[in-house]
Amino acid sequence: MDHNEQPILAFQHLSKQFDDQLAIDDLSMALYPGMVVGLLGQNGAGKSTLMRCALGIVDVSQGQVSLLGESSGELSSKVKERLGYVPQQPFGYEGFTVEKALQLHRSFYPDWDIKLEQDWLARFELEGKKQVQRLSVGQRQSLALIMAMAYRPKLLILDEPVASLDPIARREFMSDLFDLALDSGSAVLFSSHITSDLERVASHLALMKKGKLVIFKEIDRVREEIRLITLKANQSLPNELLVLNQLGEQLLVDNYHEGIAPLCDAVASVNLEQLFMELHR
Ligand SMILES: Nc1ncnc2c1ncn2[C@@H]1O[C@H](COP(=O)(O)OP(=O)(O)OP(=O)(O)O)[C@@H](O)[C@H]1O
Question: Which Gene3D superfamilies match (predicted)?
Answer without folding.
Answer: P-loop containing nucleotide triphosphate hydrolases
